[in-house]
Amino acid sequence: GDADYHSFPLEEDYDNDPEDTYATSKLCGERCARSFCRRFRGTDIYALRIGNVIEPHEYELDFPDFLARPETRKRNAWSYIDARDLGQICDLCVHKDGLGFQVFNATNDTITTKETTEEILKRFAPNTPVTRKMAEYEAPLSNRKIREVLGFKDQHDWRKYLKV
Fold it and tell me: What are the backbone angles phi and psi of residue 68, rounded to the nearest 5°?
């Protein structure tokens, strides 16, 4: 459906309301992982909330439609993760110890539209509150935690591969 989010940006502590069994199963997995880390102190499990994975060839193939029809991207919160950047995130997780159980949004930095984040949110989610100032083209599914905690650096912004 076309359900609104509770607020933007969507950060890891966002109150998830899954609409299908797949999304519900992902949250169940996170709960199991958290329980395991509580039971076995010193264990690290990092759950990645991986959005729409984009492979290099898909920029020319899919992004023109994303840009022409931004309403179709609402279900992904107008966010994506380049497959190569996802590899970097996985590598950062493997090399980071001592965080216990953590959830990270695995997304690139920017929104998948030509319009600014503010313009898109006003157009497609006008009744959804924005809880903090967002950068001009910041992805509504925030990767701030993974940047701050693991040092993720977005290297494959879609704008490098497609002229707007």
Answer: -75, -30
